[in-house]
Input
Amino acid sequence: MVGIVTVRQATAIDAIADAYTDRLAELDPLAATEMGIPGHDHQMTDLSPEGHAELARLSRETLARLATAEPADDVDTVTVAAMTDRLQLALDLHEAGEFEGQLNVIASPLQALRDVLDLMPTATTDDWANIAARVSKVPWAVHGYIESLRSAARRGLVPAALQVQEGIKQAAELADPSSSFFVTFLAGATPDGSPAEGALANDLAMAGRKAAQAYGELVAFLGDELAGQAPADDAVGRDRYALWSREFVGDAVDLDETYEWGLEELARMTAEQERIMAEIAGPGATMADAVAALEADPSRRLHGKEALQRWMQQTADAAIAALDGVHFGLAEPLKTIECMIAPTENGGIYYTGPSDDFSRPGRMWWSVPPGVTEFSTWREKTTVYHEGVPGHHLQIAQAVLNREQLNSWRRLVSWSSGHGEGWALYSERLMEEFGFMDDPGDRLGLVDGQRMRATRVVLDIGVHCRKPAPAQWGGGTWDAEKAWECFKANVNMDEAFLRFELNRYLGWPGQAPSYKIGQRLWEGYRARSEAAARAAGEEFSLKDFHTRALNLGSVPLAVFPKALGLEP
Output
């Protein structure tokens, strides 16, 4: 069953990992809040070059301690391998200047300073005092961020012009004193159920105004200084791409072979989708025909955000009830997930893990774009399984829960997109295997998402590594324009969503392919485990395989086979 089996005695290596986690929380309070580590919600991360240097120093010191420590058991062996992999790669990225130069449309300091507020508790006066204290430090953080972008620019690392221009738009929204989230969110403070008063109200109002002003300074810097240095070319080049690919996948992959596999996978997903389209709307049906047939069914439509939130929650709860005791054994804290409509409106759907003590449960968030009021269940059932159970919620919450086996770094810090997003994408297919996606509409949504992920492998590697484009997408070398035409042809989504997604890939190299690459590796490890069981004359238990894998926490995929016992 997925749960705690035995209590393990903490070791010297656990102490090193725990000390690293404690110090990381001190140096990066934004990450501490995300990980659910208490005591840092009033603090702010130093985003300046000096702040990055402190994090690098922590990595070096920890690597030195790990190098002289002797593993006491197999758990220690995995910890040392995983921490060494992640910390050394973090140093490589730091020394290359990559952390200082981060600016993109979805996951850079520009967004992090605002997004962390979604995770902070808001029930009490003390909670809002923490928010006021943190937001009051946003100007300091923004100034440090600007200095880091300048430092990276001096090394020739300037984000592409597209990312700078989109960053200006996002920063301008947060700089508007009449509508900035910093201003409106803090103005709506209701500690203990009543509007904030007195000194707290003044602190909140001042912090919100100052944060908005700081974002105005960021707008000016991006427009007046950085934009003039930004290259028009979106490609980061093979060397930089390989580094980021290792970071996100959690392992080094053959980029040329993976690109060719992506093309093959895209063709396979397209053929599978065409078969389902014919099942829905008859032989020769187009995607438009299938969508029209599905959209005409009122049982597949949701009207309004409240209906969406209720359906998400009902679907997630039903999956937990159906899977528990059959395909997984869920400990009690894992049976709760909160499905939320996010305060942001960028179209993203994502999961945030529980706090260390589970006082903040795992949550699935849906960021609904402005004006969108109609939703299709056939498109999104697979998304709920991806973000909830057996996807991210089961994976991440189980690691947080497993404190009897894993140190705090393994439970709260360790994460690679290839392992995490690969598991979530694998989980979507798992639900099909378990019989939860027999409805052809739900399967069309599943395969449509898989087709999009395969397209991302092709476009991301193609553009950033300047690969030759197939003739059907214009020939020559991949660029943003060819990627746009390919993306539109292969992904059945609103154009605004498609544009945001492509902008994300262009500015976040290596991240988007890690989902499909990770799924490929997960499926491979399962097949190898099954083959090993047969070779040993044993019956393969899928439930046991999942239990063993999830109880490891999120380890880099370079380490995963050994942790599973597939390699000596």
Observations:
- The first strand starts at residue 301 and ends at 303.
- Residues 198-226 form the longest helix (29 residues).
- The beta strands are 301-303, 337-341, 349-352, 362-366, 374-376.
